[in-house]
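Board notes (copied after class):
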Amino acid sequence: MKELRSIGIQPDVLLCRCEQPLPQSDRRKIALFTNVPEKAVISAVDVDIIYSLPQWLHAQGLDEIVIDHLHLNAKPADLSEWDRVVDAMAHPQGEVNIAIAGKYVEHKDAYKSLGEALRHGGLKQKTRVNLRWVESEEIERRGTDLLKDADGILVPGGFGKRGFEGKIAAARYAREHRVPYFGICYGMHAAVTDFARNIAGLEGANSTENDRTCAHPVIALITEWKTGAGDVEKRDETSDKGGTMRLGAQECRLKAGTLSRELYGQDVIRERHRHRYEFNNRYRQQFEDLGLIIAGKSMDDLLVEMIELPNHPWFVACQFHPEFTSTPRDGHPLFMGFIRAAREQRAVREAPRLAQEAVA
């Protein structure tokens, strides 16, 4: 504070990080030595549920201080939605175990938005989401038994060859064992590759990101596409990787009658992208004839955005990143649908045990 004031910065409010609420005597002392009103010395305490922090700050009058300082004409705060979020986290009525088969699981911050989006998906359903981080290379070494107790399997984004075969194995396990599956970006590539190899019988199917000379490049570098603004962008194998990514929000048209259309409740959606490789359209008709559902496509019909499998409890994969638009209050349609399916999967798995206990 002394250094800030020495360069002409005088705070109006102090948020003091602490494990326990500041005693009144400490607040008074801090106010005295910082020339900040005592009521504006706020305890920013550690909380068990991060989403309860707005309630805690409101209880200390922080919002009123800001409104008064900025001379705003505002209605009294309505935290009913936040109350519902916190209550759902504190008092869940069910739980699910979600296995995340990724390649950066040792660095969980890499999947931070993904983990939060999964938890958001459970909030409106009062479901606790237990995350099980599974290294996809471990699946390659030890097999898919690592996934056997999961109520749902999610394969997230990533880059490069390392661990990709483990992701394909996770997609295959979910498909064959009828476990709800959610593939995001590289997770969609894994699901498409599994379908190509084990349903279409295309030996050697792969992504050209990992094998440029593979026999069946079912995932490949698309050289030209339109941006959301209608501009044409181009790329090739020699292009700078970061500069030629398909980035940002893009519109996608959903197919009528699909699960994806039902979940979103609208024909056209807008989601954020971050990738270079896409579904290879050379295989689109062949895969559709074998039952793969192309549930979403770009507005110009050139790029496959979403796929589904029929006759499966819940098997959805998308090219974009829905976790980027999830919020604790609203969740995201795909994550809410995935968690709902995982709860149903858990109920099916537990039915024999519950029946046996009832007889006993």
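Comment from the instructor: Residues 204 and 256 are 33 Å apart (CA to CA). The chain has two domains: 2-85, 95-348.
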